[in-house]
Amino acid sequence: MHHQNIVFHGVLKRVPWAELDELVVEHGADFRVRRLTTKNQFIALLYGQLSGASSLRDVVTRLESQGAWLYHLGGKPVPRSTLAEANAKRPSDVFMGLFAVLAKQVHRGLRRKIAETTYLIDSTSVRLNAHSQWAHFSTAVFGAKAHVIYDADADCPIYAAVTAANTNDITAAQLMPIEPGATYVFDLGYYDYRWWAALDAQGCRIVTRFKSSTPLTLVEELPLPEDSTILSDRIGHLPARQAASRTSPFQDPVREVRVKLDTGKILRILSNDLDATAQEIADLYKRRWAIELFFRWVKQALKIKKFLGTSENAIRTQIAVALIAFLLLRLAHAAQNVVKSPLAFARLVAANLMMRRPIDRLLGSQPPPIRNKNQMAFQWAQI
To answer: What are phi and psi of 221, to 5 degrees?
Structure first.
């Protein structure tokens, strides 16, 4: 009978192993390592993410029960203390680097049009326990923050960084790579005229929100579309001076579009695009919801709310592996057309992770492979 690989193998075959090996050498991750290589650590953590393991002990127990399958996948069971030590000490930059490599591959494969690229920028916070002293935020509160650039058209993140929760969003944004000519949509956490000016200088379109306290020096009032939620459309200048009488680095005219939501709330949307319609700008800002759905998906489907370590390196490693898991699931989901919902597909992968069946036939019922005549006779007898 034709040999059939397990579902986990169908996920792992999409990992760029050659690039992982290069990252391991670059960061010296396997230097003097005897028991648990970086590849074995990655397979163990990815298995834990996809199977929904809730703790380090849970991961180890599940690995022990699947020792035979792991051997054929290049992995192996590992003691809890060894895995914990690897998560704490092995450079997390290896896994963040692997995420960056895979994100580029996924983005190239899934994006249909390069022109008019729209990227969403935001961050999400996760609570940590009191043992994570590096992430102290306030009295008895500890947390980390993941800063992400997300392409909603391709439905995948293209950049991620992890910091302590007390790091300002704009501080992390200033280190993000910028694609000239792209559109960037973000919220009030990135309210910085100097950063806006840097984006504008590279030909990027900006769509964000005005603070309620920011005045606009009016230059021109634009006509409004009929029967819309647009309340006003104006062109003007931001304040010429900032705190301590500093000259504002953003001197070019900007657009203010006021929109009334269904809840009755009024938003002041800011953009440096003076040519698009007011509705187009409002619709671009509305797309921010896609990155919020992405954060919710990762936290719920990949159990990112529960961490397997407390050190900064362990937290960064687990978040990187969770994002890699999302990209691998995204690739696998795009390669089939049976399961439409990404969340349903992820749940089916988790339920069938160590089952022998094609990853594109998770909804089909397949009998277990027949290995000998006695088993064949037994199955016919059951029928």
So the answer is: -105, 125
Delimit the domains of the chain by residue range. Answer: 7-94+320-361, 205-275
CA 80 → CA 66, 201, 369, distances in Å? 15, 51, 33
DSSP state, residue 28 = T
Give the 3-state DSSP-derived string for 50-87, with helices as H, strands as E and coil as C.
HHCCCCHHHHHHHHHHCHHHHHHHCCCCCCHHHHHHHH
For residue 13, the SS3 value is: coil
DSSP3 helix / strand / coil % (the chain, rounded to 5)? 45, 20, 40
Q: Tell me, what's the pLDDT at 42? A: 94
Burial-class residue 240 by CB neighbours within 10 Å (0-12, 13-18, 19+): exposed
Give the predicted TM-score (pTM) of the model: 0.86
Residues 6+ apart with CB under 8 A from 300: none
Q: What amino acid occupies position 304? A: I
Tokens 């290896």, located at residue = 94
DSSP strand pairing (156-164 vs 141-151): antiparallel
Chunk the chain into consecutive blocks of 10 residues (it has 383) and report each block's average pLDDT, rounded to whole numbers.
Answer: 70 93 95 88 91 86 79 78 92 96 84 70 88 77 91 90 92 94 95 94 95 91 89 93 75 94 92 95 94 89 77 92 93 86 88 85 56 39 33
**Tokens read off for 127:** 């609570």
Q: Give Rg (Cα) of the chain.
A: 25
Q: Which two tokens stand for residue 360?
A: 């594109």
Burial (CB count <10 Å: 0-12, 13-18, 19+), residue 87: buried
CA 243 to mean position of chain CA atoms: 35
